[in-house]
Amino acid sequence: MPPPSRFANVLLNRRIPVRTRLGLLTAESRRRLRPEAAYAIPYGGGTLYLSHDDYEIDWETLKSVLVDQPYPADYRGAVVLDVGAHKGYFGAWALAHGAGTVVSFEPEAGNLAFLERSADSFTAGNRTWKVERVAVGAEAGEAELHVMGASWGHSLHPPDEFSEYEIGVQRVPLVAMADFLESARSLSDGRSRIVVKVNTEGEECETVLGTPPEAWAGVSEVLVETHPWASCGADEMAEHLERAGLTRIRSAHPRMLQLRR
Fold first, then answer.
1. Given 49, 87, 206, 236, which residue has the most CB atoms within 10 angstroms?
2. Beta-carbon contacts of residue 254 (< 8 Å; ≥ 6 apart)
3. What is the mean pLDDT of each run of 10 residues along the chain (261 residues)?
4. DSSP characters over 37-66
5. What is the model's pLDDT at position 1?
6. In the chain, what are the domains?
7. Whether 259 contacts 213, CB under 8 Å
8. Phi and psi for 92 in degrees, rounded to 5?
């Protein structure tokens, strides 16, 4: 269970819709009295899910997106690429903040099942939420995804110390970031902002640095969550993206690299 004080703060937080807060309260009660495989949380005209097996991690991840809001950007009418989508919490948040189209990329089968259920539930209005079961990197191909016991720890190249937490390997398709950036430009048709969010558990350097600066043309905003075991630092990625005409801006989140055109 989340610490009582933190749970209370979330339930009282006005950034979160009342229906969502009631859903979180109901989920906590059901988890204790009548456990289920997953708990449905209403949000933004659709439904998000907290899995029972990863309840604390999912709760913390959802709380981070809804309360801490580490991905501030102008989403109004935007085409959003959600690279490393987990169970879809950020994708739903982007739609709730005005995104016109969200394309979520998630390679891990367990997370993907919940992500697809959430995306299917967001059907109101003219919003579009697409889901791709792929990992995103510099080049297309196939890759081995190392699956950890915690749902947010899956990685293509985990550090050696993660091996004790590994519970399996999934063979997943790998697509090139440059190809999806080109697809996003087609979706935006030059009229909509393109926002790219990257959270790939240490794979961010290979993905960002391996994608030529010219491929980032037309992207309005990039948000990259950095990890201490990644092969480069935020400054190196920022310098690469600045060659594409993006400007680094200060982020309130200590591990977030953010650039804007």
1. 87
2. none
3. 80 93 96 95 96 95 95 96 98 96 97 97 87 97 94 89 93 97 92 96 96 96 97 97 97 94 95
4. SEEEEEETTEEEEEESTTHHHHHHHHHIII
5. 62
6. 1-68 (no CATH), 70-260 (3.40.50.150)
7. no
8. -65, -40
